[in-house]
What we know:
This protein is an all-alpha fold. It has one domain (5-28, 35-160). The protein has helices at residues 5-24, 26-29, 51-65, 70-91, 97-100, 102-120, 128-160. α3 (51-65) packs antiparallel against α4. The two termini are 19 Å apart.
Amino acid sequence: MKLTVKQLSRAAVIAAFYAALCFFLKPLSFGSIQLRVSETLCVLPIFIPEAILGLFIGCVIANLLGGALLIDVILGSITTFTAAVLTRFISKRTDNIYLSLFPPVILNALIVGAYVPFIYSDISQVNPVPIVLFSMLTVGIGQAVVIYLLGIPFSRALKRISF
């Protein structure tokens, strides 16, 4: 996909805004229990395809600036990218915003939730299964709160303006 200057500029602004939100809300954005408000921007691929690139780059920058381990920088960013692609794909096939915004919730819960306990806690001396399941649950709940309670009103506001 070839990006115009306008699209590239939009992607850059999205990336900067995503990273800035994570940086300024760092206590909420990182750790074993997360409420990453910047994930509200995951509604943007519904409206503009360049948001996919912006979200990916923003997540990479946020994780690097947030002091995340390399595994979190890589897997977290790939998860955000994949969720954004799926959000765009689903939104082009349905008008159901709840379904369109499901990928960021489920992918972050399953992928990020699965590795976060290993990088933020020492669980080597205990059975990791309940801890990982709890992490998946808390990451999923955090994502659902941000995506549905903040993202839905944000997307409704975006519908009123023209991109």
